[in-house]
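QUALITY CONTROL LOG
STEP: pairwise intake check
CHECKER ROLE: data steward
CRITERIA: each record must contain a sequence immediately followed by its structure tokens, with no blank fields

ENTRY 1 OF 2
RESULT FIELD BELOW
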Amino acid sequence: MLILTWVAAGVVATVHLISGINKLLRSNQLIPRRSELSLGVLEILGSIGLIVPKIVGIAAWLAPLAALCFVVLQIGAGIFHIRRKEFRVLPINCTLTALALFAALSWLLWVR
């Protein structure tokens, strides 16, 4: 279970880290630039918060909290894509939501 939790957290963190860096470097002009920059910074910080606290063992409660925040972020992203009728992206949102939820619940309930 521990290995699956780390794999799920690693995938979520990697995808959001890359997405956050992309949002900082390039504008896709779908949302206001300030909002895009804020989302990028939050994704990068969340990626760090998902992995680092568990590795160093300090404030380890931040990792499941970051995972739950990514669940909320992905639900918002899914709503954004549904409103724009971008249904091809929804499987990615659902997968990332499931992985983040699995990581959060496994760290909260099973893995210490």
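ENTRY 2 OF 2
RESULT FIELD BELOW
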Amino acid sequence: MSSPQIRDQKTDHLLTPENSVVIIIDYQATQVGSIESTDKYRMVQNTIALVKLARVFRMPMIVSTVNVKTGINGPTIPQIAHEVKDLPSYDRTTINAWEDVEFLEAVKATKRKKLIIAALWTEACLLFPTLDALKEGFEVYPVVDAVGGTSVAAHEAALRRMESAGARPTSMMSLICEIQRDWGRSETVPGMLGVLAGMGNGVGLSVGYNQKP
């Protein structure tokens, strides 16, 4: 069996390493600790997996925090900060990252229209930039199992509002498969399997068990 010639990675209507940017917003201790809509450990593990996926496929990443310089909040939690330590972190006072000049410039400098976003909380720091980005013609893909809200109702209402505005929710498993797309692209398979193995879910455990020593 053989795969067809790979589609143009920049114009593909699906997500590819060449047409997407990964955005991580406000994974700070206060925000993580206040999540009530999902399991916080699993959420953080999925966010780490998202960052590692971007590394494997050499996708640009943008990291932002809120109120670190003002002293109100701490920095990005160590589990994630370790993975992005070589990247700038755009600290803001605005709840809506899209209203921060440096953050917005960083997004637009990538020249990519497909935004894969994970942010806390769903009902604020994910919702607001998503709505603004959609209005400006970007495609936005919230990673639903890497985000959380202060309640189940707040999280779900925000996702519905984003989706009704045109957002395209995705999950980590779907995203991994969409970015890899073809097992025949062997150069990224080991890294992709490493991301899966580190997620700690059923698929990840199965992949980890079957990795060659």
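INTAKE CHECK: passed for both entries
DESCRIPTIVE NOTE, ENTRY 2: The longest strand covers residues 20-25.
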